[in-house]
Amino acid sequence: MPRIVKSADDRRNEILDGAQALFFERGYERTTVNDVIARVGISKGGFYHHFTAKEDLLEGITARLAQDAVARVRDILDDPGLSALERLNGFMARSRSMKLADAPKFRAAFDVVFRPENLLLYHRINAASIAVMRPVLTRIIAQGKAEGAFTVPDPEAAAEILLHLNASTHDAVARTIDAMGTAGEDAAIAALDQRFQFQGIAMDRILGLPDGSLTIVEPGFTRAVMTARQAG
Amino acid sequence: MPRIVKSADDRRNEILDGAQALFFERGYERTTVNDVIARVGISKGGFYHHFTAKEDLLEGITARLAQDAVARVRDILDDPGLSALERLNGFMARSRSMKLADAPKFRAAFDVVFRPENLLLYHRINAASIAVMRPVLTRIIAQGKAEGAFTVPDPEAAAEILLHLNASTHDAVARTIDAMGTAGEDAAIAALDQRFQFQGIAMDRILGLPDGSLTIVEPGFTRAVMTARQAG
DNA sequence: TGTATAATGACCGACGGTCGGTCTTTCGCG
DNA sequence: CGCGAAAGACCGACCGTCGGTCATTATACA
Prior knowledge:
The structure is a homodimer. Chain A is mainly alpha-helical. Chain A has 2 domains: 8-52, Arc Repressor Mutant, subunit A, CATH 1.10.10.60; 69-227, Tetracycline Repressor, domain 2 (Orthogonal Bundle). Chain A is built from 12 helices and no strands. The longest helix of chain A is centred in the middle third of the chain and has 29 residues, at 119-147. The radius of gyration of chain A is 20 Å and the shape is globular. The mean pLDDT of chain A is 94. The A-B interface holds A 119-120, 123-124, 127, 130, 152-154, 157-158, 160-161, 163-165, 167-168, 171-172, 194-195, 197-199, 201-202, 205-206, 208 and B 119-120, 123-124, 127, 130, 152-154, 157-158, 160-161, 163-165, 167-168, 171-172, 194-195, 197-199, 201-202, 205-206, 208. Chain A binds a DNA duplex through helix 3.
């Protein structure tokens, strides 16, 4: 095997790319380190030069995903002209459009990530996202509290709770994925959409806002994402 | 080795007992099947006669824990004289007293279950608990909605969300555990207690109740559980 | 300035050891 | 005697290690 040398950062990212693709194809447990190094075109030793354990891949991938996600909403977070409510809604709207733009990719990943045997992968992604988003959301909520718009005792705790609400839809999403392609598909999508609506109301209420202040999903969003198909 | 034959149910429970003890001592990943069979005093073949995989132990243990928990509140759930709010508060009060009664055991298990490497164990326990509690809580919320006391669009979704709120305290509990025995211990316990209070308010609001309607923790509960020490 | 030399660290791949799971055989109970 | 429970030797997949190699960069010296 010819030896190809690259900068540590480049190589590390290549490995993360390969591992991420495999994890979203087969899940974490069913992907072996040998799978990863075969895909990247690297040796066992090379791999362990950059990572101390297979587990590190999870850490690296989820951190990267979360940081990418927050980078894409940075301008909304930093816009000084927005009220807290506008910022929050703008943040969620942007997140939706990111998902829609890559809907087929997300959809394909969902198929794997929401399988029961990949519960760990799901929760790691969630935890990394929360870790990155918590300070961000805390600032927004603190702003809203200062404006007198939100009514919460502790912005940080509120942020943590709101972010964790996402995970409460895990089972509902999994059920909908299972129903895709069956006779109950339409009903399942409608039910999931309802579920998301309620999620928005729950968030409103936790922040002390009138029902309907926050928009989690727009009409058609749930169906669009759930029915998206991977090209090729 | 002398061969000891027992009924399948008895043996199965013995294995679950042994595995549960080990999981709460060392965590899931760090417990091997050989550890389990050594503790129970059984052979490899015997083990795989009762369980098809190590993973099955998680399933079995968490299901048993969840069912035990719900059995201990059955009378409150079935009491026809209670309003939904009384039932919910009674249910939570009972849960607290169960925890207090076995505080040292719970506390010792927390030390392990809240370690980052045992995230899967934590979430499996949580998921099993949710699976068992969801129908139960759904009925209570439906009752409250019928009484006009709770204001929610969908009792089942509300139940799912409320149950998932527990998981949102994972990090806060983990931080408190880390702070135990340090100078910040008192502050950490106080902060966690505040966090639980807010959790209660969040639940109130999701159900459309006035703040303070539900009692998640009584004064001193958090400290009592967190400072409990295992005998021996 | 050009070149030998040293140091760095990316990379290699055979190998070891652990651990989940299987298979054949044996035992005990009804 | 038949059937399920139990025993334990065995298997093989995988993670991680280890001694060593090769490309690249820094340094010293002519």
